[in-house]
Amino acid sequence: MNSDMNELDSVILDQLPSLRRFALSLTRTPFDADDLVQATVEKAILGWQQRRQQGAVRPWLFSILYRHFIDGQRRNGRFKKLLQLFSGDEGETATLEQQLEEHHALALFAKLPEPQRSILVLVSVEGLSYQEVSEALAIPMGTVMSRLSRARQAYRQLLEEVPAQGNAEGRLRVIR
To answer: Which of 32, 59, 133, 139 has its CA 20 to 30 A from that of 123?
Structure first.
């Protein structure tokens, strides 16, 4: 039992940054993301002994997080209105132009439907395989691939249709 708890501690600590990023992409607020990660960790601790032994732990954790998010959405029946920027490295200071471009990209990303956002984050940001995403979201692998394709296409279309606020070419205008 003690070695099981040590393994659990190690696995969860390694996955916390990834879980938080995914939670932030779903909830769009740091406070809600932290609450979602905390609930996920609690459920993982309680369910550690009952988990499927053959499955990988990482998709299992993402699955718990995603299902808890969906349950919360059903209970609340609404989405949050504000998009918070993902926090980057504290050592990096981005220029105003970079911050505006990031904000613009995230605002466009927020326009995608939640299933497409989830797939994009899990595959492109978290690096999960299609099979792991399929397990985490409890959907067929073909659905993962088609949603990912549609999400990428929709995001590209948004980028083309809505140039960054600035001049006609879509470049941000630098004011000095």
So the answer is: 32
